[in-house]
Amino acid sequence: MASLQYLVSRTLKPLRTQKAYKEALLLHDWETIVGSEFARGFTPIEIYTQTSGKVLKLVTTSSGMATARYVEPVLLQRVNQFFGSAYIAGIKTTQGQIKKSIKKPLNENLPKINTLDEALQALGKHLNVN
């Protein structure tokens, strides 16, 4: 017969995997989750565990440190809304350099296509089919 520890571990493994995936998505899709106004001023670094729960560590500029206390409840609400529960218990901010992500619009390098014939010709060129 399997031990209780083994059964609980097997039962909870999908939840741990799902939360780790969501943590990675939080770091990757930060601007989408909190909005561009907060993403410009705060960059997530890591999520770590303390006795009080999970803490999201953010880096910000010196002026961001002055506003961090006031915007923390909104950031916490948006992050926990992303997780679907009160997953993050607190936010810790540190002063540092914010990395600016350069995201090009998806349609920047796409040709302008008006008809089906143009679309098929563009596809053929892309696939090197004459």
Please provide the count of β strands. 3
Radius of gyration: 22 Å
How many separate structural domains?
A: 1
Tally of separate helices: 5
Uncertain runs are none
User: Helix/strand-derived class?
Assistant: alpha+beta
Q: How far is the first residue's CA from the last residue's CA?
A: 65 Å
The CATH superfamily bears the name: K homology (KH) domain
CATH architecture: 2-Layer Sandwich
Task: Output mean pLDDT.
Answer: 79
CATH topology: GMP Synthetase, Chain A, domain 3
- CATH class categorisation: Alpha Beta
Q: Please state the oligomeric state of the protein chains shown.
A: single chain
Largest sheet: 3 strands, mixed
Strand order of the largest sheet: 1-2-3
DSSP helix fraction: 40-55%
Q: What is the element string, with H for helices and E for strands? A: HHHEEHEH
Shape: flat
Strand content: 15-25%
